[in-house]
Amino acid sequence: MDNDNQKDGKKDKDKIFLSLSLFGELLYEIAIPVVVLTLLGRYLDKVWQHDFLFVLIGGILGIVLGVLAVYYKAEKMRQKIYGKTKEDKEEKDKKE
């Protein structure tokens, strides 16, 4: 009986670590484009002597790219879990 409890505890820990790993990976997918493009915007603001124009553009563009990266990663995970894409399902529905 203790063996079963240990196995269940290990499974729970594995799920927690998997969830934290996925969370960290998605956070990384968002943070890198935002930071890099904001710093690039800061550099361009200094070069062309603007106040915050390129910082804002870089930050917004970084957020958009980060969200797109997370969307595509989530779509890949969905395909891996369920095995079909939306297009495959639509084609199947059209045939029926």
Can you walk through the features of this model?
The structure is a single chain. The chain has helices at 2-48, 53-82, 86-95. The protein has 96 residues and is mostly helical. The chain crosses the membrane at residues 16-40, 52-72. Keywords: Membrane, Transmembrane, Transmembrane helix. It comes from Candidatus Kuenenbacteria bacterium GW2011_GWA2_42_15. It holds the Pfam family ATPase_gene1.
Topology:
Layout: H1 2-48, H2 53-82, H3 86-95
Helix pairs in contact: 1-2
Transmembrane segments: 16-40, 52-72
Organism: Candidatus Kuenenbacteria bacterium GW2011_GWA2_42_15
Keywords: Membrane, Transmembrane, Transmembrane helix
DSSP strand tally: 0
Mean pLDDT score: 85
User: Largest beta sheet, briefly?
Assistant: none
Whole-number count of domains = 1
Top keywords for this entry?
91% helix; flat; 96 residues; mainly alpha; 3 helices
In brief:
With 96 residues, this protein is mostly helical. It has three helices and no strands.
